[in-house]
Amino acid sequence: MVENTAAKSHSHQVFNVSIDIHAQTGHNLLDDDGRLKRTGTVWTASSHIITAVIGSGVLSLAYAIAQLGWIAGPAVMFLFSLVTYYTSTLLSSCYRSGDPLTGKRNYTYMDAVLSNLGGAKVKICGFVQYLNLFGVAIGYTIASSISMMWLIRFLGCDETGLLRGLIVSTRVEAKIHALWWLSIVAAVMSFTYSSIGLGLGIAKVAENGKFMGSLTGISIGTVTQTQKIWRSFQALGEIAFAYSYSVILIEIQDTVRSPPSEAKTMKKATLISVAVTTLFYMLCGCFGYAAFGDMSPGNLLTGFGFYNPYWLLDIANVAIVIHLVGAYQVYCQPLFAFIEKAAAQRFPDSEFISREIKIPIPGSRSYSLNLFRLVWRTCFVILTTVISMLLPFFNDVVGLLGALGFWPLTVYFPVEMYIAQKKIPKWSTRWLCLQILSAACLIITIAAAAGSIAGVVVDLKSVKPFNTSY
């Protein structure tokens, strides 16, 4: 699952999640496919990846490390970074079909799946992507609502818990249209609140005068042995969620110039970006755990309570809201486009679906209002909000999203496409190694999903839906 991108527009292809991040350079020269000459470099690709990866997932890393401890926590994070880097290099090799310099380009993740695997696997991949986008919409609603509730409390307003924040979030998301500048703003905001969380963690450690936590994480007694196991599994999903960006890697690669081959450039960019991201994650997660120990909060910024500096926490929570509201628009656009195109194809003569109503706006161009788009998108926002009210569990949802997106999108499809692309013989040593990696990651995904679902079940016992403060 990807949290924040430099997206500017979205493809409307069926079963295709596409986020077009081409820079409009105005260059007159064309590439081999007739498109504008690509000018991306190792550094521009690295910056795209870093801004795509670092997002709300960083807020749960301290909690994840608290479940695993000082030994397993950083080790697991490092292993996830290695797997993500390796499978990303496999995926980058699938950008062109055939020759790495002159072969047919695959502009999106789904194009690569179609070219290399085809058949039913394309539909399966599309289903997984859209399901993941739906889950991300729910997760973003929960996270932004928690921050809104913090701001409401800080301002001294009367509030009735998470419900108020969810309603406010819904109103904002239902009214804002996906604009190109949302991605830029979202990238800035994600770095803002992540950096504030890191800075406050360092300050808290300095105030305590020592590093909190233990080698094995939260101790039995604070939680039961069963809870310890489930929480450890859930932590795997939370770390996986923080590294999810494979679904947009091909789109980023499509901005890179050649020669050298795009795959060669992308492998260098992936190494740089994963190294930078891992360092940042290690700092945020470890200093958060060092600051709070076993009591590390699910959302790092909520752990600092209502103590000084108020203004810094205000900035961080405002940044979270702005980022996630913007990211909500960006990530839901492919899902919106798919449903709207499918409806238009299924009911070509329906005026409700196809008719555009022109609404004159003084001093500007008229606004085109499509009733089906208005009704469908509003219902979608309401649905994600209702589910968020029923399951207002940030860590459980993040862990589940990480589990659902990690194996299929980050590991399985890149591995299978690479095997098909390079025509690796079945049962060869290389084939077996790749299949063992895929199987191991599948086990991790199942464990993470099970831990997150168990967390939801446990939390539901102590939560009254629609009337609970988070």
Helix content: 55-70%
Helix and strand content put the structural class at mainly alpha
Low-confidence stretches: 1-27, 165-180
Instruction: Give the beta-strand count.
Output: 6
Q: Give the distance, in angstroms, between the N- and C-terminal Cα atoms.
A: 24 Å
Main sheet properties: 2 strands, antiparallel
Strand order of the largest sheet: 1-2
Rg value? 22 Å
CATH hierarchy class name = Mainly Alpha
What does the oligomeric state look like here? single chain
Order of helices and strands: EEHHEEHHHHHHHHHEEHHH
Please state the second-level CATH architecture. Up-down Bundle
Number of folding domains?
Answer: 1
What coarse outline follows from CA principal-axis ratios?
globular
CATH topology: Amino acid/polyamine transporter I
CATH superfamily: Amino acid/polyamine transporter I
Mean pLDDT: 78
Which percent range describes the beta-strand content?
under 5%
The total count of helices amounts to 14
Subcellular location: Endomembrane system
Pfam families: Aa_trans
Protein name: Amino acid transporter transmembrane domain-containing protein
Organism: Hevea brasiliensis (Para rubber tree)
